Every structure is written in structure tokens, then in C-alpha cells.
Request: fold
Amino acid sequence: MKPTPLIELERLRVEFGGSAGRRVRAVRDVDLTIYEGETLGLVGESGCGKSTLGRATVRVTEPTGGTIRYRGADITTMRGTLFRSTRADLQMVFQDPFGSLNPRRKIADIVAEPLLRARGFSAAAAREVVDELLDQVGLGREAGARRPHEFSGGQRQRIGIARALAPSPKFVVADEPVSALDVSIQAQVINLLADLIRDRGLTMLFISHDLGVVRHIADRIAVMYLGQIIEIASRDDFFAGPAHPYGEALLSSVPTLSAAPARERIELTGELPDPADPPAGCTFHTRCRYAVERCHTEAPSLRTVAEGRQVRCHLPLIPREGPA
Amino acid sequence: MSSEVLLEIRGLTVEFDVPAGRLPAVAGVDLSLRSGEILALVGESGSGKSALSMSLVGLNRGPRAHIGGEVVFGGRDLVAADENELRSVRGKDIAVVFQDALAALNPTQRVGDQVAEMIRTHRKVPKRQARDRAVELLGEVGIANPAQAARAYPHQLSGGMRQRVMIAIGLANDPAVLIADEPTTALDVTIQSQVLRLLKRLQADHGTAIVLITHDLGVVAEVADRVAVMYAGRIVESGTRDEVLFHPQHPYTMGLLSSVPRVDGPPVARLPAIAGSPLTGVARPPGCAFAPRCAFAHPTCGDAIPPLTQRYGGPAHLDRCVLDRSREALEVTP
Reply:
């Protein structure tokens, strides 16, 4: 069966006004398709633009340019009641379970809000959905009468997930949803998300800096560097051997829990360049160990190098055969 | 490796007065740090790992803190030492590097001057000489253009650079012990790997003993020689890196290790998570603190706190569990 695109981004751009008139292009003309039912893992280091891209995809942050299509319809500038009902299909789970819940409201009201506002549910009908959801995320419906401060970080993240799922969205952007949690709690929330994705047939953009977490939950991986997507691959292809030198360095930097002597680490020299003033040519050439003359002057485009595999590099690393 | 004990912790307790009563952050810890080793202190939030490390140099003293037990360093008990005595030890013999370098650095002072100041606090050297040494130190911690970086203010540097500056300040007086509290948690992995390499180099070149406080088991595997796992204020397992990480005996250590989503090895369908959440309140169960979450607990686990003892592994591989089963038996059960 051919996968159906759910979200299509075309030349999506987000710019922020920097100091002294310097405009920071946080997201630089991103083309990306997210297919129905898949979980796409978006990875990269701080400042690469992955959160901004996630927020712009559901217009929590308004894009400066480009197009967002949801089920084929252009929603980039959609307004009014039409957008309100569309927006209910597109939800977000945030990283900070402490900052994203109104401390004065009861959990049941927090979770019911998108149902009442965007889906036009009656209070009684919403109540029923909320009870079911609180059970489903493992808090129990009794939690509805309590307030955010009575819950631990992991529990608050479950509340955030329940709120995002209340209007039965088709697409969820989860921005570092488990990064603030302890390891043992993190595993619980990852399992919960995996169950919900399966049971509800959710399509998800899962943003994380943690490659272990992403490997666990994503079907495909997209890697960002300085506002651009530099590699897209299936989960197994990426972890068997990234095709972009940056992906390779990123993966080799992750400390592994292995008794074997440390693997070869590819140490990236230097710092992330200023996003307001990215290098000419390939934006990664300043830290790339394979860079040649051409990389300094000519910007590579994101091109297909194998089935389902795209890379923005003049000299892509030949993917190894089979699992590593 | 030398096995001379540098720092000896005996029966350390740290309690804080909180609205709900008295919080037992550290509930009796015995631990020794040997010269030249990297000892990782592992645990989740509220396990007491930071409270333990801060109390080594008296950084969490205050009207609401009650610290008991002994921390013996160079023949002195640092728990009993007065603030003057502690000041002469802190930054000179024992240095601390915090997670949040931006908060720990003075925003209004150039970073080179902050390194130089730490040198001059403990040694009578001319300003000029301290400043030159500061630039040298910034170079040693891997800052590319140390003379230029020395003139920068903290906000002008990246997170990785600031963490290096913190380490440079820590090293200013060539301390015997460096306490690094989550030194790479705020950093990206590519920068983290640079900082971890730096810690290993310090250990090799200067013979610095390092107490590394972290929640990241991958980081532990990467750099630690010995590991102590904390849960609810107590050490529940300790031993060499290989013993604790690759032949764990305590159900908590096992659970923690299997909860980590890994980038290597075969992908697993479902993470074997530990049920429930860590103890954070003032109330503690009478027996094993992990029993309420333990997949292997039986009724007697709630009777008394198990002692930290050698059971199946090497002579220094200790854990705090009474389950009379081999590790293999524990692994197949749930």
C-alpha cells in the first residue's frame, strides 16, 4: 500500500528578528512529508531549529514563508472557524510538564478545554471523554478533580498527553516529551506514547535530542542542522549507518552502555556556527572531516541516494549493508 | 591504579527541614574515593546524589540542613570543620563543577579574571602571573583561542565553552579531588563527548580523582572506574564499572539499566520500565525503600532495611538486597 501524505511542508521558513537587524533563519526552506500513521523522529542539537520547525508545522509559531498542507489542503494562512476545527486535528505535547499546565485549573478542565472550544462538545460529553483519557494515560479518572501541583513530573507529562489527545487529533507534534523525566519514568512515558500511537493510529512528529529515545519510537528519522534537514532515512537504515557526516558524528557521540571498549568517536571540532550567519557552501563544512573544496562554495541540495533515503551532502557516506 | 583512599565518607546523613517535616536526603552513606579514580554517583531525582556531593565540601549548610557523620579528607573531618577551614579546602584541594555553568559564573566579570581570582584566593601570586596561568588553563581544557576567550564575558560563550571555563576554574589550584555535578547534562552530545574526554585526560595527566554525579548511565559506562547507585538517600549497589553496569545484582540497578533506550544492540519492542515513581517525600517505608516498586519483592522485604553487603560478585561488589536468588533467576522472572 502506498503511504498517504498527511502533512506536507514546502519551502517552510521561519525567521526571527535578531539584535541589530540580524535576521535569524531558524528554519530554512524545509521540504518534508509526514505520512499517515508514521512517527517521524526529528533530531539535532540545540539551536538547529527542530523545535521551531515542529511548532511551525502546527502553526503554534507562524511560518515566515512556505506552505503547510494538511490532507492536501493548504492551511498556511487558514483563519477563523475553519482553522479552529483543523487546529483541533493538530496537537502538541510540550517538553516542560511544569510550565505548560495552568496551575489554577483542575486537571479535568485542562483536558476538556480543547473539546469544548474546538470540537463543540457539551460539558457532559466532554466529561466522559476526559474520564476515559485519564484512565488511558494511566492516571485514573479520579485525577481530574486535582490540580497540577499535586502531580510529579512524569504524571504531569501524562496530563499533557491527555490534553493533546482530547480532541482526537490526527497529528501530534511531541517536542522533547520525555527529556525532563528520570530514566525510569521516561521509559513508562515512552511506552505509553507507543501504545497511544498504535491504538489511535496517530501520526507523530517526535522531536528529541536523544537518539536512543528516537530509535525506540520513530519509524523514520530526519536530522536537522542549522535550520535545514540534512538527512532522512528509515530508522533501521539511519542507525545502521548515517549517510551524512553530521549524522555519523552525532550517532558516534552518544555514550553507549556497552562492556566493549569504547567505539571510535568522531569528535566534532569547533562550535555550532552562528545561525544568523551560516557558513557559505555546505553549512556543515566548517566541522566536517570529509569536506573538500567544493563544500566551501557550493551548497548541496537534499537528494535521494537510495530508496527512502535523502541526504544533503556532496559526498554522502555509502550506507553499510545490513544492520551494524 | 593506586588504591590510596583520598576521601572517606562514613555514616553521612543529610536532612532538610521542609514544610512536611524532615526530609532524609542522604540516609547513611559510607563511601570512599581513591586517588586518581573516577567514581560515578548515579541516581534519579531525589536520590540524594547531589545532596551527598554538596555536603562533602559544606555547600549545603544552613539553618534548615542537618548534616551528620564524617567526611575525612587529609586527616580532617570536613563535616565538623568550620567555615574558614572549609574555605581553605574548597577550590584548592577539592573543587566543584556544577551543571549550570551560566548560573555559577559571575556574569559581570571576564572569564579569565574569574579563573585568575580562584588562583589568587589560595596562593600568593602576582596578578599578572595568575592571569597568564588562567589563559594556560583555558587552553588546557580545550578552548581553541584561550587568550581571546579569557577576555570574554560568560554570556558571550557557548554552553560547552562555559562548562570548560567552569572546569578550568575547578582546576585552577590543581585539586586532588574534582566533584562534577551533572557536568554534561545541559550539553549536546557532540559537546558532551568533548567534555568527557577532557575529564579522562585530567585523570590521566594530573591524577585528579573525580566524583561524577550523573543520571546518565551511558556517561558512566564511558568514563567511570567505580560506580555507586543511590536510591532514596542510600547506596543500593556499588562496585567497579563492569560489575555494576554489566553484572548488576540489585533489582533497582537492573531496572534502571534496562529502562535506557539504546542506540546499539537489537531494538526492543517495549522498554522494561520500573513501575511507580521514586520516593521523594519525608515518609520512608520501614524496609527496603525500593520494595514498593520492585518486581521481585516478597513480603519480608518490608521488614528491615537490608545492609550493603558483598553477596555474589567480587570482594568490593556490594548491594543492598536480601533476595536469595542468583542474578540469572531474577532476570527471567517478570
Q: What stands out?
A: The radius of gyration of chain A is 21 Å. The first strand of chain A starts at residue 5 and ends at 17.
